């Protein structure tokens, strides 16, 4: 029973975290545009929703606090209070506090208790500043309810057709039939917002008042805003249609808009009045409409591939009878594509333990499963047959299917980098405030996809790098002025694909890294000798050394330079590499190179005695044979000649203290990692292996070079060699 | 409902190690494996015989004889692996224990379990949770959670220097 309750509570926590995430991005929007009604409304809604569900699941303090904030935002919403920077700061702190409350709902921790009390007082104080006069100049559209002598007024309803709506399975036709009952209405297409949600504008003349409209939009209140535009019936004025662009916010040319308007109107005349159509499933409605315009087949094909719920917004658009066939298809495809994007974007809003998957990928999975079932029955009949040819064919099909299953599964795990960016926006905002530096944060290529695990583990090191850019990279405003740079600093986060890798780059336009300073510091710290000759690249590498710090003053923000070595370690844990480039006074860039997926790896299977090991193909430069005595003769230095270069080598046999002796001829694998070359000596190279890696677990954590293993065909296991750790082990032996 | 829980609590899997009878609670045992290939892990302590793949995960295998301070088996001797689920402070852990032979599944009522008498010091008697008599034979009931948690501590102290960061 407790488990049952706990399950619901966890679900609430997950949802609440989603909501707070959402809230954070709304707040960031509000910061740039504090008068945005939509976002104020959104904040209010989040508070309202949180309050309701917190109460249900027994999070009393959250309920209390959100109730308080809700009241505050209600005042702002109705223009009794101006949204000040102070309030925004307070709300940001509230987000943090609410997150703490989710973990500590009893206020068991003293600082949470204190914080709760303090924040509550702060919010109350803000509420007392309530301004009495309505800020009429600030408001474009008045909220006062006025009507003409018949009690009719015209309202403008801005309706955002968001992905949430589609996924919730809201039936738009039902809403419109309710609107039709209220009075006369017109639908205008007013474009898309920055999230690429479609925005519909609806003019409605009714004598029922605003409450009745709100009732009609009850289930989609979060997605729409209702304002009175005139205290009379606008549709009676002929100038309305001519001037309709006046009421709209988007810049679509008026004639185009009118076509849509007319088209929609016509479609409702021809089909909308058939009430039964609206009672049916929307998809049915669409099919009917499609048949009516005589292109049932192609459209249905598109629909089959569409994720559930996407057809709905298409209803009104697809049914326009005056559109040509091609236009109609294109329109529908556009809608589908757009919704595809929405679903992709939706990924980032999910809590860490859940993942939303593109419906297309699920379709492929289903297809693969049906294939597998049929192959299985072929296999069965093949077993009864005399000759082996059927079995052989089945084998090839299974091989192909396995590969397809693998690709499908890997694709499902891919998540856009976008996922982590919201967190950074907030971090940069808080830090730049804290440090008194103005910084602009731009992102590029955030739709680049990475394995979910990689993304989760990437957040921390990336955050550290960004923090360093802000703290050490970007100079204070006065200094920037002196250098003829814009006062506002710039941090750019870029993600892109190249070959089998995904690159993530953080660039700043700050002071850059002075190699001389790094060098002197490293000598001072005893990391290098004054006589050592290092290339610029090697010098930059020094910042990743443990215990290295260049900031002259230790700041609260990036601490004592314990950071960068941890950054490198974390990135190496996800099998990535990191590189620094810098120019004095122009800026610094950190480039992280990552594998797109780490779940399955292409490796080479090698063997020494009875031990099987795996080497990532990506790290192998070349392989060669050498007589064992040649290697043994070089044992005193552990280096060998390769391409006129002396490179260190490590013998698997010695590294793992294996019994037995080298065979007459050994295999030498030349590895290339982080710009360093070294060789691995093994008895045998067996071949390619697609490794599904599993961790060895904590019982074996003393072993640094092998941390995971993969199952072989014979039931045995092969150890994955951590090439970085192996390289380091060589270094340790040498010193 | 309660009867069944009691029954599980009182049900034991008995097995032979060095010709003596031991038992673990069936609630702890997930599977018994014969003829499983154990892959040796280099540089591991002696009682860690290696790893096996169990339900897609890697599971460490421990030689029960060495853990208990008994003489080591000959390489040619047959063995089975009992896969055990342990509850430690941190989380669920799965290990494989190498024993000579699995014998039976039996019910031992709680009142039949007696405290452990004094035993020879080379035998690790602290891993026993009690002694039970069953069909004129004595069974030593293993406290599997403890066998393993001891494990943890020794490994932890070995690698503490490396982990310190």
UniProtKB/TrEMBL annotation, chain A:
Keyword match Phosphoprotein: yes
SUPFAM superfamilies with a match to the protein in the record: ATPase domain of HSP90 chaperone/DNA topoisomerase II/histidine kinase, CheW-like, Histidine-containing phosphotransfer domain, HPT domain, Homodimeric domain of signal transducing histidine kinase
Any one biological process term the GO annotation gives: chemotaxis
Enzyme Commission number(s) from the entry: 2.7.13.3
Matching SMART domains: CheW, H-kinase_dim, HATPase_c, HPT
Residues carrying Phosphohistidine: 48
Kinase among keywords: yes
Keyword entries, A-Z: ATP-binding, Chemotaxis, Kinase, Nucleotide-binding, Phosphoprotein, Transferase, Two-component regulatory system
EC primary class: transferase
GO cellular component term, pick one: cytoplasm
Domain Histidine kinase residues, every copy: 363-598
GO molecular function: ATP binding; phosphorelay sensor kinase activity
Role played: Involved in the transmission of sensory signals from the chemoreceptors to the flagellar motors. CheA is autophosphorylated; it can transfer its phosphate group to either CheB or CheY.
CheW-like domain boundaries: 600-732
PROSITE patterns per UniProt: CHEW, HIS_KIN, HPT
PANTHER family: CHEMOTAXIS PROTEIN CHEA, SENSOR HISTIDINE KINASE CHEA
Catalytic activity: ATP + protein L-histidine = ADP + protein N-phospho-L-histidine
The protein, known as: Chemotaxis protein CheA
Domain of life, per lineage: Bacteria
Automatic annotation (TrEMBL), chain B:
SUPFAM superfamilies per the UniProt record, alphabetical: CheW-like
Signal peptide: none
Residue ranges of every copy of the CheW-like domain listed in the record: 9-153
Superkingdom as given in the UniProt entry: Bacteria
Database matches in Pfam families: CheW
GO biological process: chemotaxis; signal transduction
Protein name, UniProt field: Chemotaxis protein CheW
UniProt cross-references to InterPro entries, sorted A to Z: CheW, CheW-like_dom_sf, CheW-lke_dom
């Amino acid at each position: 029973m407790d488990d049952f309750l706990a399950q619901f509570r966890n679900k609430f926590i997950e949802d609440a975290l989603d909501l707070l995430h959402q809230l954070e991005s709304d707040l960031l929007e509000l910061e740039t545009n504090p008068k945005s009604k939509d976002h104020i409304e959104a904040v209010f809604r989040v508070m309202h929703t949180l309050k309701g569900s917190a109460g249900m699941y027994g999070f009393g303090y959250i309920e209390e606090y959100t109730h308080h904030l809700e009241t505050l935002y209600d005042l702002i919403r109705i223009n009794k209070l101006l949204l000040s920077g102070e309030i925004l700061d307070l709300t940001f702190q509230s987000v943090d506090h609410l997150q703490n409350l989710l973990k500590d709902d009893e206020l068991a921790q003293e600082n949470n208790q204190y914080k709760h009390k303090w924040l509550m007082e702060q919010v109350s104080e803000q509420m007392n500043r309530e301004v009495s006069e309505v800020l009429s100049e600030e408001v474009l559209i008045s909220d006062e309810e006025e009507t003409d002598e018949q009690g009719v007024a015209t309202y403008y309803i801005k309706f955002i057709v968001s992905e949430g709506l589609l996924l919730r399975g809201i039936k738009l036709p039902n809403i419109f039939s309710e609107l039709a009952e209220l009075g006369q209405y017109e639908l205008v297409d007013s474009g898309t917002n920055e999230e690429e949600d479609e925005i519909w504008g609806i003019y409605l003349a009714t004598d029922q008042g605003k409450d009745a409209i709100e009732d009609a939009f009850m289930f989609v209140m979060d997605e729409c805003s209702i304002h009175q535009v005139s205290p009379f019936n606008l549709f009676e004025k002929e100038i309305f249609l001519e001037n309709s662009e006046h009421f709209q916010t988007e810049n679509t040319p008026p004639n185009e808009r009118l076509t849509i308007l007319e088209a929609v109107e016509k479609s409702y005349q021809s089909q909308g009045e058939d009430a039964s159509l609206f009672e049916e499933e929307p998809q049915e409605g669409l099919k009917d409409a499609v048949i009516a315009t005589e292109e049932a087949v192609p459209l249905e094909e598109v629909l089959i591939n569409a994720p559930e719920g996407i057809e709905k917004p298409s209803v009104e658009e697809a049914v326009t009878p005056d559109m040509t066939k091609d236009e109609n298809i294109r329109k529908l495809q556009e809608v589908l594509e757009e919704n595809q994007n929405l679903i992709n974007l939706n990924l980032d809003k999910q809590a860490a333990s859940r993942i939303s998957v593109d419906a297309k990928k699920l379709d492929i999975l289903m297809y693969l499963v049906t294939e597998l079932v049929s192959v299985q029955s072929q296999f069965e009949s093949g077993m009864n047959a005399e000759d082996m040819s059927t079995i052989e064919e089945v084998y090839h099909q299974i091989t192909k299917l396995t590969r397809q299953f693998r690709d499908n599964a890997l694709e499902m795990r891919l998540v856009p980098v976008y996922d982590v960016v919201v967190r950074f926006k907030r971090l940069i905002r808080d830090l730049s405030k804290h440090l008194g530096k103005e910084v602009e944060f731009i992102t590029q290529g955030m739709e680049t996809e990475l394995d979910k695990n990689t993304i989760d583990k990437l957040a921390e090191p990336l955050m550290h790098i960004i923090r360093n850019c802000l703290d050490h990279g970007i100079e204070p405003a006065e200094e920037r002025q002196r250098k003829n740079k814009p006062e506002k600093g710039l941090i750019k986060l870029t993600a892109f694909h190249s070959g089998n890798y995904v690159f993530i780059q953080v660039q700043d336009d700050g002071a850059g890294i002075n190699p001389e300073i790094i060098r002197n510091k490293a000598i001072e710290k005893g990391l290098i000798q004054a006589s050592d000759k290092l290339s610029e690249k090697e010098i930059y590498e020094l910042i990743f050394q443990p215990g290295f710090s260049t900031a002259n003053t230790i700041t609260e923000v990036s601490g004592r330079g314990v950071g960068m070595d941890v950054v490198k370690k974390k990135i190496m844990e996800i099998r990535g590499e990191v590189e620094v480039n810098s120019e004095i006074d122009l800026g610094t860039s950190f480039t992280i190179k990552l594998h797109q997926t780490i779940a399955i790896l292409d490796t080479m299977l090698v063997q020494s005695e009875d031990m099987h090991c795996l080497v990532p193909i990506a790290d192998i430069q070349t392989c060669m044979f050498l007589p064992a005595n040649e290697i043994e003769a070089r044992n005193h230095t552990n280096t060998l000649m390769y391409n006129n270069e002396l490179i260190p080598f490590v013998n698997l046999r010695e590294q793992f203290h294996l019994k037995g002796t080298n065979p007459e001829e050994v295999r030498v694998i030349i590895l290339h990692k982080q710009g360093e070359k070294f060789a691995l000596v093994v008895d045998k190279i067996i071949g390619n292996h697609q490794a599904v890696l599993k961790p060895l677990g904590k019982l074996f954590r003393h072993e640094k070079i092998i941390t995971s293993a993969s199952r072989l065909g014979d039931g045995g296991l092969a150890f994955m060699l951590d090439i970085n750790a192996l390289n380091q082990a060589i270094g340790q032996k040498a010193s | 409902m309660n009867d069944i829980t009691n029954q599980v609590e009182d049900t034991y899997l008995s097995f032979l190690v060095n010709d003596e009878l031991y038992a673990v609670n069936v609630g702890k045992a997930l599977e018994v494996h014969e003829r499983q290939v154990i892959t040796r892990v280099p540089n591991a302590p002696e009682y860690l015989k290696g790893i096996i793949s169990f339900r897609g995960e890697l599971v460490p295998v421990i030689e029960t004889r060495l853990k208990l301070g008994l003489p080591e088996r000959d390489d040619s001797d047959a063995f089975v692996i009992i896969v055990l689920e342990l509850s430690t402070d941190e989380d669920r852990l799965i290990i494989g224990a190498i024993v000579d032979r699995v014998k039976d599944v039996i019910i031992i009522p709680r009142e039949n379990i007696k405290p452990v008498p004094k035993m020879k010091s080379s035998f690790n008697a602290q891993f026993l949770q009690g002694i039970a008599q069953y069909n004129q034979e004595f069974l030593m009931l293993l406290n599997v959670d403890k066998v393993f948690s001891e494990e943890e501590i020794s490994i932890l102290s070995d690698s503490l220097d490396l982990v310190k960061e």
